[in-house]
Amino acid sequence: MNANIKDKISQLQEKYDAIGQDLETHLDGLLVSKPIRYWDYVQTDALLNLQVQRTELPDEMIFLMYHQVNELIFKMILWEMQQVSHHKNLTAEFFASRLGRISRYFDMLATSFDVMGDGMEVKQYMKFRDTLTPASGFQSAQYRMIEICSTDLINLIDVRFRATIDTNTPYEHAFDNMYWQAAGKDHETGKKSYLLNEFEGKYKEKLINLMKEYNEINLYDKYKSLPQEIKDNVDLKNAMRHFDYTVNVKWVMHHYHAACKYLLSEGKDTEATGGSDWQKYMLPKYQKRIFFPELWSKDELDNWGITNLESYKILK
Fold this sequence. Notes:
CATH class of the largest domain: Mainly Alpha
Radius of gyration: 24 Å
CATH topology of the largest domain: Methane Monooxygenase Hydroxylase, Chain G, domain 1
Shape: globular
Order of helices and strands: HHHHHHHHHHHHHHHHH
């Protein structure tokens, strides 16, 4: 018998002994198991049967699949974040490499808005969108999870109410004052829209639990807890700034411009499917969503979402 095969059998014996399993039984199973095939591994048939249109308009399929792709990429982003947040001995190299992966995913998302911006007929969209009411992209729980895993909760609070929030604020009160509540809540009366009530009914408990879990291990807290020599690493700072800008300005603005093409196409300000004031909700200059504020200068912070910060992104 080949020496390499003998060595591998020995390693397998050690592996299964360690978990109280019989190696011979597993080898018998290997003899009768089928070789893995691409479509089995990717679950292609299941994936391609998840698209169920509400109309017969062809471009609705583009809209539907595009959002499903977004959700898959959001899951990839959360997977990378989890590795950083739960890492016990972070290095600048590991942190920067995972942020680089996350930023590439968001770069892809940002540029992909042309799929909708130029890939659907306005007339078709304005017809099939009525069948989507009151659903809204606002209801993407994974995107809210990305925000919670990225930064301290105070940086996600509606700018009008940040002064009322501190470290002793109950999580539920913080949740009720998140910036995105403005898309479905009248803060003067406290009345919530159907859109927001449905979203909270399904995800509120899960999101509050995530807020508790990531309260001291979100990406910003992980950065602040690092030794100064690691925090000063230019590659890490650039990776964090790129991520912050890409998510909170670049991606948002691509989304905004795609929405403008359709929602302003008839010469009037069309209400979003969820009923939100979508322009004020989306534009970064109103809420100033910034994950890592200490990594930006006062000038950069003051002009967030107003002027082009591309030239500020790379530190020397």
